[in-house]
Amino acid sequence: MNAVLEVTALSAGYGAARAIRAVTIRVEQGEHHAIVGGPGSGKSTLLRTVVGLHPAANGTIRFNDTDITRERPEWRKARGLCLMPQNHRLFTSLTVEENLLVGARWGAPGPWTLSRVYELYPYLLEKRRALAASLTLSEHQAAAVGRALMANPRILLLDAPADLAALGRLTKEGLAVVAATREVPAGACHVHRLIDGTVTTTRTEVRCRR
């Protein structure tokens, strides 16, 4: 099967310091991957580099067999590569529904609409006119995931998610999910452990469906 995302020997950093070094990861349709590491291990830098918010120093990023290493972030999003950033970064002065609609900008064509997001997270429908600043932590994350889904991604990157319970349904529908966490989440098919910017990958056979 062709990879949705293929990262090869990717390095990135800040000045002379390298936050990630020669990272290689291959993600196929419907897979759930975990990027596991402690604070400062390079998890956020890796995800931000993949979506184009941080420049790559070396290596390549391929999406659906197209080299996107130097492509602008909005074009990567339009292809179907989306990130839920750490701390979610919702617009707190906007309502939940307005935040969701922001996610559709530069999005790819596809099935995700407001009604589908509300079906996945019914409590967001009740809070759709509430300001994002008033949400609980779990509601905040749900709104951030929903905003990313509104772009109709083929692969969803999640930086430090607190709850992955609803996302099993997404992988069953063919969406690839990559979550950066401190501990291995339930359901992860491939585990990539980052230590000082270098990755070690293992595959959990029982969880990898084919």
Automatic annotation (TrEMBL):
Q: Which residues are in the ABC transporter domain?
A: 5-208
The record's PROSITE patterns line, in alphabetical order, gives: ABC_TRANSPORTER_2
**Which UniProt keyword terms apply here?**
Amino-acid transport, ATP-binding, Nucleotide-binding, Transport
Q: What GO molecular function terms would the record report?
A: ATP binding; ATP hydrolysis activity; branched-chain amino acid transmembrane transporter activity
Pfam families reported for this sequence = ABC_tran (PF00005)
Domain of life of the organism in this record?
Bacteria
Q: Name one GO biological process term.
A: L-amino acid transport
Q: Which family does it belong to?
A: Belongs to the ABC transporter superfamily.
What is the protein's given name? ATP-binding cassette domain-containing protein
Q: Tell me the lineage of the source organism.
A: Bacteria, Bacillati, Actinomycetota, Actinomycetes, Streptosporangiales
